[in-house]
Amino acid sequence: MNETAIRRENNAPRQDFWLWRLLATAMSFALFGLGGLLLWALVFPLQRLLGGDAQTRQRRARLTVHHSFRLFILFMRKTGVLTLDFQGAQQLGKHGQMIIANHPSLLDVVLLIGYVKDANCIVRHGLSQNIFTRGPIAACGYITNDESADMLEKAAAVLRQGQTLIVFPEGTRTPKDTNPCFHRGACAIALRGAQCITPVLIHMQPRSLAKGEPWYSVPPRRMHYRLTALQTITLDDWRQKHPLPIASRKLNAHLEASFVDALYCPYLETNNDAGR
Questions:
Q1: Alpha-carbon Rg for the chain in angstroms
Q2: 193 pLDDT exceeds 70?
Q3: Alpha helices in the chain (DSSP H)
Q4: Which residue range forms the structural domain that includes residue 203?
Q5: Are 36 and 136 spatial neighbours (Cβ–Cβ below 8 Å)?
Q6: What pLDDT digit, counting tens, does each position of 83-108 carry?
Q7: 224: left (phi over 0), alpha (psi -120 to 50) or beta
Q8: What pLDDT, on a 0 to 100 scale, did the predictor assign at position 4?
Q9: I need a surface site. Which of 2, 35, 220, 224 has the fewest CB within 10 A?
Q10: Is residue 270 domain-resident?
Q11: Any idea where the Phospholipid/glycerol acyltransferase domain is (predicted)?
Q12: How many domains are there within the chain?
């Protein structure tokens, strides 16, 4: 989106009960923070009393976060903060699957974890230090992105164990006036450990909650998210045709181009109640 289009979007007349959406957005952020604290201080300690090995406790925590995010999404939909349509969600959650998504907004990881029951995720390192998010990250065993070789191997190892791993190859939210730009680390991890890659295209209109944008910068009309699981990519051919560094570069370029092409396909408005 160019600067002129962004300016036109930001100056559009306020619609869809804007003042209520501002209040509902404030309630949503408060609920998210309070929920993170309650999980860390109360729910996860009680779950540890149920016993089980480390993997059992981790799966239990991930299921709790999954259901919490699902309720959080429902709250935002019912209060009119956003509408949502997720196409192909049944394709997600397979053995050893890497889910790769673009990253237009702050809510992307919430939406994906809310639809995949037992997923691991690579998250920004700073979130592991945040009082509201560090508890769930630690309990669920999410991988923090410190860009080290150890992190790459740890991520590949969880895929080899059969876990589903959610990755945002951009590493940060996409600026409003640019296309997604993927780093090769995600493809290097996939080629070392994944059974397959399933790209998920996240398209939202109007753009909001982008990098550097405060929560109270509520768009003129209600946000609509459309998530689409694209065709799954098997990796055997990529591994066999090229050495790993070349395969990572070529696969990364292929994925990035696929996302950019898909983002510029005509955007079809869906019914506001189409979200599942």
A1: 19
A2: yes
A3: 3-10, 18-38, 44-48, 54-78, 108-113, 134-140, 149-160, 185-193, 236-241, 244-263
A4: 3-263
A5: yes
A6: 999 999 999 999 999 999 999 999 99
A7: beta
A8: 54
A9: 2
A10: no
A11: 97-205
A12: 1
